[in-house]
Amino acid sequence: MLIDVKAVYPRPDFHLDLEFENGERRRFDMRPLLKMKPWICLKSPGRFDHVRVEYGTVVWPGEIDIAPETLYDDSVLIQ
Length: 79
Known about the structure:
By secondary structure, the chain is mainly beta. It contains two helices and seven strands.
């Protein structure tokens, strides 16, 4: 089941707080992905913080994104 991202908030230590269309708030750890292309270029906090929501998922300048199902499946529920 595909659940779109409604909002994203960059957090310290390369984490993303996400709000999904089903009302859940979840935290995604980007650190493992920062070792791989294309995400390696986001290692700078200044660049990482330029994250935004487009088309139901998170994106960065340069057409870098992550599938919404990955964000949901690999994140943890937060209150």
